[in-house]
Design brief:
- It is built from two helices and ten strands; from the N terminus they run E-H-E-E-E-E-E-E-H-E-E-E.
- By secondary structure, it is mainly β.
- The chain has one domain: Lipocalin, CATH 2.40.128.270.
- The longest helix has 5 residues.
- It is globular and about 40 Å long.
Length: about 130
């Protein structure tokens, strides 16, 4: 339950959707970036063709055109907010933009909506099940 956040934007987040945990949701199948907004523009097309696989052992892969990038993920709570932490091991500028502790706005069996809690960054990341 979220009760009063200090020095945060209106991040009154109680993830809506099904009753499963984010871990149960993301580990079922492959995901694609259906929306990525960074500060002042839609950058969704930068992730076209990627398949993201969140495994139950907390490893993560991002695959496009037979090239796989590995990393890790975790579900956590910080400042009273549920978060999905993504850490891809790469120097690819676009993929490193996904590395963050994203606030979980909502989750459903086929979609997870995430956002940055820093109002100066105005980033949103949505994953949809493939």
């Amino acid at each position: 339950m979220v009760t009063g956040c200090q020095n945060k934007t209106s991040t009154n987040v109680t993830p809506s959707g099904n009753n499963s945990t984010v871990s149960e949701t993301v580990t079922s199948g492959k995901w694609s970036v259906s929306y990525f907004y960074d500060n002042d523009k839609d950058e969704t097309s930068d992730y076209s063709g990627y398949a993201f696989e969140f495994r139950s052992d907390k490893t993560l892969t991002a695959t496009r055109n037979s090239v796989t990038t590995s990393g890790s993920w975790n579900e956590t709570t910080d400042d009273g907010l549920p978060r999905l932490v993504i850490m891809l091991n790469t120097t690819d500028e676009k993929l490193t933009e996904l590395n963050d502790d994203w606030v979980i706005e909502s989750k459903m069996d086929s979609q997870i909506k995430l956002k940055d809690d820093n109002p100066d960054r105005n980033e949103q990341l949505h994953f949809s099940k493939q």
